[in-house]
């Protein structure tokens, strides 16, 4: 009897493990590599939640520093959780800076959002309930879309361009909420003594400045900074913006790594970006939640956030 109990327990454990693994596998999108624009990277994948009603949708925008990355970065856990919650999901590729300087990537994402809305009826998507989700560079694009005023061109001959660009909510992770050079420099100086030696950190900063000109295509630093600031969430934020759920993998008290290379990535994805944006949003009266290790947040997960803000019709 004892052996039977042990075997039964093992079978239950194995079955649970198999179910868990199955849940983490990534389903094949019902629509794959659908063209939303002319460039070869202007493609979109869509997974539809199983329901007879129109569903809300989350648009995922990948990261990669605008130099790499793809829609395949969307994690299976997040994807499955959203689908199980009755929320359809789309993921896009966009032009990288090797193809065209910013804001080409941003404009691609805008077009993808409008393309989804244009096809919403045939895809049974509720175009009034769309949220955005993305990390790092993708987070920048998400916030730019969410905080920009309406960019629809109602007079355009192109039906895609006539669709709205406003969204119900946005959930960026590890996002750079400002590309203001002074903010970045102050961030480096603040953490210099915590990790990498001063010269190594400054070298990293110098490389970021050079990359900055290539990234935005500015002929002068003045022009480059102007373009960068015009795309920054903190610059764009206003009182009519949608709810925001930001997440970072470090707390404000986290110690900087001593390795200079790790220091660069640590700085680029620092929670101070989220703190700065939340302060601005609090002043504006915009709902915001900031999750990091040890933080108390209204929502346990990004899926709970999306469920709250997208599963209410005409939110």
Automatic annotation (TrEMBL):
What Gene3D superfamilies does the record point to? alpha/beta hydrolase (3.40.50.1820)
Q: Which keywords are on file for this protein?
A: Hydrolase, Signal
Signal sequence extent:
1-22
Can you name one GO molecular function term for this protein?
A: triacylglycerol lipase activity
Ranges for domain BD-FAE-like come to 45-246
Which branch of life, at top level? Bacteria
UniProt lists the family membership as follows: Belongs to the 'GDXG' lipolytic enzyme family.
Q: By what name is this protein known?
A: Alpha/beta hydrolase
Native species: Flammeovirga agarivorans
